[in-house]
Amino acid sequence: MATKVQSDIEIAQAAKLQHIRDIAAKLNIGEDDIEMYGKYKAKIPLKFINQDKVNQNTLILVTALTPTPAGEGKTTTSIGLTEGLNKIGKKTTVVLREPSLGPVFGIKGGAAGGGYAQVVPMEDINLHFTGDFSAIEKANNLLSALIDNNLQSKTNNLNIDPRTIAWKRVMDMNDRSLRDIVIGLGGTGNGIPREDGFNITPASEVMAILCMAEDFEDLKSRLGNIYVGMTFDKKPIYARDLKAENAMAILLKDAIQPNLVQTLEGNPAIIHGGPFANIAQGTNTIIATKMGLSLSDYVVTEAGFGADLGAEKFLDIKCVSGGLKPKATVLVATIRALRHHGGATKDEYNTPSAERVSKGLENLEKHIENMQKFGLNPVVAINAFPTDTDEEVQLIKNRCSAKGVQAILARGWADGGNGMTDLAEAVVAEVEKGQNNFKALYDWNMSVKDKIETIAKEIYGADGVEYSKKALTDLKKIEELGLNKLPVCMAKTQKSFSDNDALLGRPTGFMVNVREFEFAAGAGFVIPILGVMMRMPGLPAVPASEGMSIDNNGVISGLS
Q1: Does the annotation mark 470 as catalytic?
Q2: Which residue spans of the chain are classified as CATH 3.40.50.300?
Q3: 480 pLDDT more than 90
Q4: Which CATH architecture is the domain 8-129+258-433 placed in?
Q5: Which residue in 17, 24, 87, 518 is a FRET match for 496, CA 20 to 30 A apart?
Q6: Strand ranges in 391-468 using DSSP code E only, listed in sequence order
Q7: How far is Cα 289 from Cα 430, in angstroms, rounded to an integer?
Q8: Catalytic: which of 43, 108, 222, 327?
Q9: Active-site annotation holds for 385
Q10: pTM given for the model
Q11: CA distance 61 to 63
């Protein structure tokens, strides 16, 4: 009889966790210096950030090729690589984003790694964790309440034109019915009727601000810079005009501190912040990354979706803003995804095909070239699946070698750190060569159009950029508000280099279409919208929540 394969949650629940004070001790932090949330979670005070160590220690970015809907295992690879680096004697911490309840109960079912490369306590991390998302939601919605209260007020009215209000409420759940709503109905005592709507919490600018802030004062300043709308006489209104920033910051006083947990093998893991990568910057907080670099010699972190989204934003926005300089990158590839880009349908992802893998490698090769444009020669991690064949693996290694890149089979899911030491050795060798010299793709002082064109042509491979009439009107407003020197945070599909989901592999001969612009004045970036981007997802026909249960002892099953 075949041995039953344990699920992610069964593996996590079977692990013997160390007390969080013992994990903190590995980072030379005493028990009295952490704020414990039970036995296995804690907050780390900001005083432990040491800029000298941030500049000195080694930052490794894990990114990926253009993913299939299920993702290619960046988080699993990041955790597994951390285990592998520790096994070869490198003091390493993994720094990740927090999962959103939307994907947890929607499609993915969880986001704490997988197999024997997980962060734990897995259930807590995937659910309410330490309450950061709730704090972000409350801070966001406090501003919404203050806006509507000001509209109602007769003595403190800022003359805001309700038709121009750009700020939306948020909640951390997929609920499509809340995308567009009307509020203030039921009589004059209930407010001013107007159109409104909800975004999902990871799409909130408050989330983006938390992830970009350098310290508490910077957080308050950025919150005050949130754009609300215009007055009837066309003057901009910001959160600071509503005197909102201090109250919002009070709600975030604990959330700004990074969260400390552990990997299955008892190595430190810092998890903090969680913006999506197709509509925001898609990386954990600058504070968390600097905390990891202050406390360990190596830090492994990841950026959401493919390298054209998460990695580009990590490098051009987060690294430039935070003064970070990665010394190595890892590109995660699965043979399933290469078959997908080579023409396989969903039910053929597990069917071996050297021909499809060969064609799909065009996508990976473009990502390799893109990383090299940033001065970073990546190591390719082939995230192993049981359906991979030796022929397909060798094909990847040969094509990568022709690009001057090493491809290593990564078995973190099945074997934990023991399956990742080869990748760890390869990454250390790349770091120790000293040949990687990170440089941003563009100068923030370039015009907004030039920044967009640089990304579209250099990273996506587009022939050029086209703008709708609305986009040009939006761009004029951005310039009038003095936001044109901010970096651009491209919002586009994660399924293709282009803005067309159907163009797989390495498309050519296409134009990028900017439909409209948004901007996050507090977070500090301009957002070109390519196509229709969803800020409040809906649940699938069969949501992951249907497969979850909890017994009388509080034991959860069905998370993955």
Answers
A1: no
A2: 8-129+258-433
A3: yes
A4: 3-Layer(aba) Sandwich (3.40)
A5: 518
A6: 407-410, 464-467
A7: 21
A8: 108
A9: yes
A10: 0.95
A11: 6
